[in-house]
Batch of 2 targets.
Target 1
Amino acid sequence: MTFFKLFRQRWSMMVGALIVVALLFIAAFGPSMVSYKPDQMDMSNRFSEPTTTHWLGTDNFGRDLWTRTAFGARLSLFIALISVGISSLLGTWVGLSAGYFGGWFDLLVMRVVDIFLGFPIIILALALIAVLGPGPINVIIALIAVFWTQYARVARSIALAEREQEYVKAAQVLGASNIRIIARHILPNSLGPILVLATLGLGTAIIAESALSFLGFGVQPPEPSWGWTLSYGMRVLRNAPHLSMVPGIAIMITVLGFNLMGDGLRDYLDPRGMTK
Amino acid sequence: MKKLMVSLLTLFMMVGGLYASDWHTVAQAQSDRVLTVGMDVDADLLDPRLARNTTGFRVNNLIYDGLVELDAATLVPQPSLALSWSQPNPSTWIFELRQDATFHDGTPLTSADVVATFEAILDPDFGAPDRGLYAPLDSVTAMGDFTVQFTASQPYAPLLSYMDKGIVPKHVVDAGGDLANEPVGSGPFRFVQWDKNSKIVVESNPDYWGGQPSLAGIEFVVVSDNTARAQALEAGDLDLVQSPLSPQDINRLADDDRFANTITAGFGYTYLNFQTQFELFQNINVRRAIAMMVPQEVITNGIYEGIDIQATSILMPNHFAYTPSINQPANSDAAALALLAQEGWTDSNGDGMLDKDGENLSFVITTHTEDPNRVQTVELLQNILAGNGIETSLNIQPFNSVIGDILAGNYELLLLGWLNLVDPDRAMFNQLHSQGSSNWGNYSNPVVDAALEAGRTALTAAGRTQAYQNAARVIADEVPYFVLQYQGFHQFRTPDLNNFTADARGHLRSLSEASF
Amino acid sequence: MSYVRPQHLCEGRDFFSVFHMTTYIIRRLLLLIPTMLGIVVIVFGLLQIIPGDPATALLGLDATPEMIDNMRRVLGTDQPWIVQLTKYLGRLLQGDLGESIFQKTPVIEVVLEHLPATIELAFISLLISALIGVPLGVLAAVNRGSPIDLFSMLFAQLGISIPVFWLGILLMLWFAVYLDWLPSIGRGEPLMDAFGALFAGHPEVLLDSLRHLLLPAITLGLNGAAIISRIQRSAMLEVLGEDFIRTARSKGLVSWKVVIYHAFRNSLLPVVSVMGLQFGVLLGGAVLTEFIFGWPGVGQLAITAIGQRDIPLVQGVVLIIAFLFSLINLVVDLLYVSIDPRIRLE
């Protein structure tokens, strides 16, 4: 299969992957392309529009927006990856165990999942941040609390189906431990859908983080959060539109990248589109 | 599908029909032009004894009358419900009430209502938020149907400035009426409707003792985002907006010919408060040094874009006691570092950070999230201090999350503001008297205490001025408070509004005389 | 939940299935009890450990320690949390949600005062979602691989990726401030009242309400439109690939008739169910849009109540939204079953 043909067939995954790779590149090397530090202020050059020295202009403290955006990418990716990573791990294991063991454990888990799903999620996240206080780690905790249930649900339904399969029964007869059966037989079957969900979840996490920061409940200055920059940018929308355009577009492109990748993955793993 | 559409339509029509019957009244009331005013928060309670937020104050100020009314420009108390008053001795006041005032339900307003209002405020269990202002009062008694006597435990000069508190109807309170949600006052506007978090509607009171206002009514619309509120004015959805507004919006609106504006000094200041119980800040020279590093000019002209005024001391320019001759430590990093070196704080290990006995110079700066300018101020301050070898961390939380810590004095350096400081007493006594109720930084200096007490009990204006200047001089020198800015007041409104005088406190009482 | 197979709707139901349905509904409603209880306990727990308490929030910066103590006593927050929780649950059992600390009004009244605004916004934005999403999805599926398809997929991706608060501000700036076509903030008369006015001969009132609704509804609805167009497209594609469609085509039925009468109809089920769920999401998820456009709904109410530490009010808002959300889910599930008998109740 030529690259071109692959690209035609899997365009969304390819474009998504390209965006994500570009983003990782900017996060890693963006700051070293210019000579500014993220907290280097220049109060005499505030709200500068994009120039040859400041590629994306400067912010309300005269800090270089390109540098801030690249550091912001690190921050957003860090929060998204950690929160999605932990919630998918947690949710998958809880869901798989619930589905596999069934009985009271399943009942208990499903009730807890119901409780979390019953919450209006943004209100739950806001209340959690109000309890924990703002900051990256607390945003991660709040996002985990909000996200883990969807993985648990998917994993549970897969475990419910798989445990009736002959090969699982056979493994049980052969005396394999439950943990081993889950890890070796059921988990691999759930990886596809979970991976798709997690990829899409990265986009959701980035939006959620910026929304919380936008409301003042998320990451705080002087951290170069996109959400915070955006929320300040809104106030100066007409005087310095680049200040809200840059983080707004950064968020949108990043989320787009993860969504395209997730969709592509789904088509790839499950061409008939039965998961969702 | 078609069937569904038809039944949905029918449903709409049926429900619509139900509402149609009582529609005409509302539609009719809308024919006269109503003034729409943008507010940053919803009112809390429309009971003047209990209201705590600015919108609550402002709406109550139109629905209720106080014994006095503070002149919008000079803040000098003017007759309102009280036609006149006298002071037989320095701690006793006698007010003669007007006899033609009636509440919106038609009941005459008498001295019993005044007594009941203040008795409730003075009752600790009632929970009136500004009870402290009236705490020096021993008793409030009716001397007749229209005469009331106030007696304080000692001379209390600022009392008249606080006598603009709205008077509530005793008979409604006694009958268990819900004033907080359905206010009944005697003021120029009557309450009509309150959609929580959305709008409050009042209409002109035809029976007002001062004559029926010319405006048909006022609609207070809540738009919490400052920028959105400014945009709503520009889009023609609001007739009047006022502080708090974003600097960028203020500068744009000020240049816009479509709006009349009032840009003046307000009655608030923004300050840094050092926790004097925190070991580092027990040292006056360390406090002075930190204060010297505050880039006051950059904050005022950069972050606030000149909408607030750079402060020189705790005395405010629109207070009688003001003098430009008292100055806080001037901004100088070099002098600050020298002062710190004198106290033993130097970069002895060459890591770029100041240290003493192996410890780095570090502390926490606390403020709240709601005001982006304050958040930016601490962000800038942190950056400047870091450049001078001082390590700080920021504690920025929603106001209601930090308020507990603030009241308990649980902070190191605090950035906050005071509003509605109609008298120097209000700007200093509770904040910096060692027994002051808002002295969370635990500042204690007998000289300041004595001066602030003298300010309350002095019998002449000159005596009060002298007292407050004495206190301010010590405060500027020892910097428990470092006042960053005197807050500006900004109001933008439709030029159609005539005969209106803006009030730098943000009150809108003059709308009772205004017209389109 | 799996996609529908084409099948002509609504076969007859025997007694057993009706009985089955009733027990199912009862079971689902009973399951709501532990869920609601769990929500109460979690919210209660969160609000207990949240920094700051209602008394200080209520009294503000002028408070003295005695005033705060007094207020705590009045509010009952000076008691141990277990006593407070028990009392709260006891009242809840009698259907009493308590009184808002700040507004001094029964919680149920406060929430019901804000709920219509949110429902109205959710309803209209869902309508917009459907009006954009359904035709776009159908067109894309019918013209698979064409520029229309590409455009629809691009639209869907962007619609899902754009942060709602950013979109809101951009729309407001453009349509309300620059063009001055629509009001930027606030709500007109409630839609129901506005319909009333229409019948009383005041169409301008309805127009005003709709003008206020438009920007927030579009902001909120674009995301839904993107989701719906995707679901519609894939459901259509699936149905179009089914045997009976092929049969219809082979019988010589013209293509657009096939599309309308068979494919579209049979693809509606997943779309309707997504719309149902989306409605539930919008009820609790309109927080940001309400915040930006000053829309007086429960989302704003929730933010304010959390900010003020108004414990009973936060409890009430969350409980009522969660309850409605669960009910909508139940209705969607039932709808699913009643339309496609081959989907069995769990």
Note: Residues 215 and 231 of chain C are 24 Å apart (CA to CA).
Target 2
Amino acid sequence: MCNSSQQSLILSTPKGEIDIRSFCTAAEIQSFSFDNQFGTYAQYKSLYTKRETLEKNAGVKGTNVVVALADRRHIVGFGVLAYPDPEERWAQLGPNRMIEVRAIEVCRNWRAFRVGNAIAKMLLAYPEIETKIVYVVGYVWTWDLDGTGKTAQEYRTIIIKLFEHHGFQEFQTNDPNICLKPENVFMGRIGAQVSDNIKTDFKWIRFGIPPENPI
Amino acid sequence: MRYPKEVVLKDCSEANIRQLEAADEEKLIQFYKDLPESDRWWMRYDVTDPAVIRKWIKRIDLGMVYSTVAVTEKRIVAHASLHMREFGCTQHVGRLRIMVLPDCRQIRLGTWMLLDLIHLAMEKGLDELRSDFVVGVEDGAIEAAYKLDFFKKALLTGYVQDKKGNRFDLMIMMKRLHRDLGDF
């Protein structure tokens, strides 16, 4: 069963072709296998360690679950773009105004082949994306520093470069979770059709001030 | 680093943090003129001397001192700097200094300046940051530093004095810049 918005692209890597598919349905995901490298390590735990979590995300209206498939059926990478929960500050901008890159992860054996970049591209191939503000929060405690051999700062720089490539920029915010560590990063991509009023409201909510005229 | 950085302060006013530029000389001179004498006293240089400011401006491109300013309505309201050593046993440590005009204190501007310098120090690959504070004079700044994981490294009891000769403790605070999760 396919979603009408679904797209796919083939990425050539030194380890073979990867099929990147957007808007996967729960049923589709259920038919794929999930790499066992998405797991728990001494100092790192994958964002999702079970395929069922991806299936659950895919069942939520408006969510774009992207998977990277080796051999057309084995998940080696995934991404999730979803609207914030109503109680989150980013929902204060109004329904469907802000949408979050909630996850991008590639299993250890398939890193450094630009799979993450391809997943990001497919996440953003979203209807009416230019009318939305897409945001991403990078928490240092979710980063696989052991697996990549990077320092926290190097990893942070990689994240910034990855998303800058897709039109994101770093923004300041007083969100308590983000402020817990200076290594954390908050980035946003303001769509070309976002009005000046919404941009101003976005600025206020970044600092915990509710918009004057919430929608 | 991407500048300017737009911040909204605790009183809902706004400021832009950006790098100090050569064209800022007059504004920076005015900034230090506007700083109360009681604050200037604790500095290492006579910042009312335009030659001192000129020297700072000239060092902008030399690479070992990074200065940022916070600007509101074309006025500099805060000045921060990260000092690094090119050589020797303390080249892994950066030293911070932040000055904020009195009417812009207690609204988290200093905290944003501090956070920005921490990011800058991380980008420069420093291992540690040091900042010195006068206890009883800069307590707000000490509190902000604690919130950003600075810790008390040493207390030099009665090390500094005010104009009247009253002695104050100087607190040396440090912050480790994390390299991997083992540090957390």
Note: The domain at 5-129 of chain B is CATH 3.40.630.30 (Aminopeptidase).
